[in-house]
Amino acid sequence: KPANKPPSITACAPAAIASFETVTTPPRVPRRKTDARRRRWDETYQDRLFELVSAARSQPGNADRLADVGEFLRDNHRVIGLQVAPNGSKRFFRRQTEETARHEIELAYAMAEEGLQANPKHARSWALKSAILLHTYGRLTEAERSAEYATQFDPKLIAGHMALSDCYKEYAARLRERAAALRAPKPETRTVRVEDSNGRFVRTDTETYYVPASPAELAMAAECDRQAAAFEQKEQVCLDNALAAAKGTREEPFYQALLLFLKKDYQGAREWLERAVAQNPDDPVMRHRLASVLETLGLKDESTEEFARAVNLQQTTCEVWL
Questions:
Q1: Closest listed residue to residue 164, CA positions, set 130, 124, 136
Q2: Torsion angles phi and psi, residue 23, rounded to 5
Q3: Nearest CA among 318, 263, 274 for reference residue 299
């Protein structure tokens, strides 16, 4: 669980902060002069992380710079890998363990908390906190409250509307799951007397049978579906608000595509995503989403190529492909 009082970026996680300095410091410059064609396998990740941490340290108490670090750690704490050879093992783009992944997301949460200590009305920090609470810790009620603060303090923050949308989506999913469980027949067991052809007792067996849902359970399931539909409507409103906030920006095609994707209009989503990628060629999230849509459409080769372009923006990947 995240710490209640996360330390500052200059004090928290000394080992991690030290690693920023030892792995991503200027000594790499002479190494590049010596062998300019060689790149370390996590160099892209470490270089970007060092830039963000340095900016946060140069502006103590700046909630935006803290949010930059937190968002980067949140987006990259799960390391992507590929199984290149047909029968080969999965190769990851940088060294990672469950412990280091957990440490990175905890540090991201600490950045959000520190940003809120510096500025309690900082919407980006509230949105970041909401996303981590929901997707990492499963604390839905707290995540919803944080997302509501984000949209309240900055109605034009797309991340805030998306965080609140994710909360409503999770509420609806849990209610749909509950409704399905209520409608499902319940297994029961009973004892059966087994006799031979002459009617003599042989043994006692136990068999399983299923009891249909009761009227009360069916009524509860219907109520769950009603509540889920209400949350799904709220989710759609949040997505519409996110699209309205993105209106006229370079991100607008991405959110147009997202709405079509959720409606299962994959071809329409592809067209908008290709436009979004053309306008934002260095955005790995948009490229990942386009790769996902291409795979859904059955375009495996195009999907793999787009996926490679996406990960090349986040990781040093040449070793994996060899």
A1: 130
A2: -95, -30
A3: 274
Amino acid letter, residue 141: T
Work out the number of other CB atoms within 10 angstroms of the CB of residue 208. Answer: 8
Question: Which H helix or E strand runs over 186?
Answer: strand 186-195
- Counting other chains too, the contacts that 246-249 makes at CB distance below 8 Å and 24 or more residues apart are 246/158
Q: What is the pLDDT of residue 166?
A: 94
pLDDT digits 0-9 by tens, 282-321: 888 888 889 989 999 888 888 888 888 887 776 655 544 5
Chain segment 176-232, per-residue pLDDT in tens: 999 999 999 999 898 888 888 888 888 888 889 899 999 999 999 999 999 999 999
Q: How far apart are CA 297 and CA 283, in angstroms?
A: 22
Is the distance from CB of 115 to CB of 125 less than 8 angstroms?
yes
Q: Which pair of structure tokens corresponds to residue 129?
A: 């906190």
Residue 58 one-letter amino acid: S
Tokens of residue 186, six digits = 């319940």
Phi and psi (nearest 5°) for 315?
-135, 160
**Could you give the angle at the alpha carbon of 291 between the alpha carbons of 288 and 294, nearest 5°?**
155
Check residue 199 and give left, alpha or beta (phi > 0: left; psi -120 to 50: alpha).
left
The region of weakest confidence among 74-78, 120-124, 244-248 is 74-78
Tokens found for residue 156: 């034009």
What's the angle, vertex CA 304, arms to CA 303 and CA 306, rounded to 5?
65
Reduced to 3 states, what is the DSSP secondary structure of residue 82? strand
Q: Are 66 and 58 in contact (CB under 8 A)?
A: no
